[in-house]
Amino acid sequence: QALNPYLLEDLKLDGFNPKADIQGVKVIITRDNFGCGSSREHAVWALEANGIYCVISSNFARIFRQNMFNNGLLALELSKKDIADMFHTFASKDTECKIEQKEDGTWKVKLIAGSLSKSYVFNVDNFEKELLENEGWIGYAEKKL
After folding, report:
1. At what angle do helices 41-49 and 62-70 cross, to 10 degrees?
2. pLDDT tens digit sequence for 70-83
3. Is the dihedral of CA 13, 16, 17, 21 positive or negative?
4. Which of 15, 38, 63, 97 might form a disulfide with 43, Cβ 3.0–4.6 angstroms?
């Protein structure tokens, strides 16, 4: 809980107030290179402490992305085209995000704003899936003992 007030505290965007704008947010959708500021687990822990379980980006800092999965959180990489479409279609709208695994093993992100909805397909490899199913590296390791 000590990390709660520090999430995105240094992010400078016009109109963005981290203390007010991240309340109740469960998913962050962003553009390039998310997580490049810190490779330490604390950055991921700050997301988790604030109830955020998923970050969607066109790419991540490699260590940050792995730390997301190691802690049982989802780091989704979508194409720049899909990310641009998400921003174009859903920016400034009250939007719900659903992440689903279909019976055929494919995954999708579904964004819903009123009667408007769009889905975007993504992949999770088998090891990442196991980390998610076991709530991270510790659960995975305990299962293997």
Report:
1. 50
2. 999 999 999 999 99
3. negative
4. 38
DSSP string, the chain: -TTGGGTTTT---TT--HHHHTTT--EEE--S-BTTT--SHHHHHHHHHTT--EEEES-B-HHHHHHHHHTT-EEEE--HHHHHHHHHHHTTS--EEEEEE-TTS-EEEEEEETTEEEEEEE---HHHHHHHHTTSHHHHHHHH-
CA Rg, the chain, in Å?
Answer: 15
Which burial class, exposed, middle or buried, applies to 3 when counting CB atoms under 10 A from its CB (0-12, 13-18, 19+)?
A: middle
Q: What is the pTM of this model?
A: 0.87
